[in-house]
Amino acid sequence: MEKINFSRSAIQSEEELREIIGKPHELVVKKSISFLDEHCQKFISMSPLFFLATANGEGKCDVSPRGDLPGAISILNKHQLVIPDRPGNRRLDSILNILSNPNTGLVFIIPGLEEVLRINGRAAIIKDKEILNKMSLKGKTPLLGIGIDVEECFIHCPRAIKESNIWNSKTWQKSGALPSILEIFNEHLKINGVELKN
């Protein structure tokens, strides 16, 4: 199929969008709060996985999965939390984006639970030793942290998780349904002109 020019039939305004979709119910709008109440704090403390959305100064977006032990995120107060930046592949996609654009979004997941917690706010890359020392894992202190000033948080309805059936092990793909991750990695390297020697 040849590339489609999406702009030819794209929605151009909120008015046009609302004509098709309509307006949200007042309860859906009012569920959003601007601070971490006890329920949000408990949800974060139980979540071993979240997704961090960032964009650079030009608006190019990235979403990064982040996994850690439940309770690894430090909640400083009702308006701030800190994510430890554990050692990784050094691409620093999220970190570099935050340097040029602090706006960020997070989605927290608890295994088995169909609702997710969404948080939006502004991020900063911190190197405060007093904070980071409290986030050590297996004797290793993170070199950096991502500090989030919370601006909005709310529980998202279960529809997406429920429809995906992600927690039902009977729907999980069998081993071998995809090539190995190493095979995919090597194929992508080849596209960019890099071939690893065995």
Largest sheet: 7 strands, antiparallel
Report the end-to-end length measured between terminal Cα atoms: 36 Å
Number of helical regions = 7
* Strand order in space, largest sheet: 2-1-5-6-7-4-3
- The name of the CATH topology is Pnp Oxidase, Chain A
Poorly predicted sequence stretches spanning 5 or more consecutive residues: none
Task: Give a brief outline of the structure.
This protein is α+β, with helices and mostly antiparallel strands. It is 26% helix and 28% strand.
Structural notes for this entry:
The structure is a single chain. By secondary structure, the protein is an alpha+beta fold. Helices cover 26% and strands 28% of the residues. The chain has one domain (27-169): Electron Transport, Fmn-binding Protein, Chain A (Pnp Oxidase, Chain A), CATH 2.30.110. The chain is built from seven helices and seven strands. The chain has a seven-stranded antiparallel β-sheet. The longest helix has 11 residues, at 181-191. The chain starts with 13 loop residues before the first helix and ends in a 7-residue tail after the last helix. The model has no long low-confidence stretch (mean pLDDT 94).
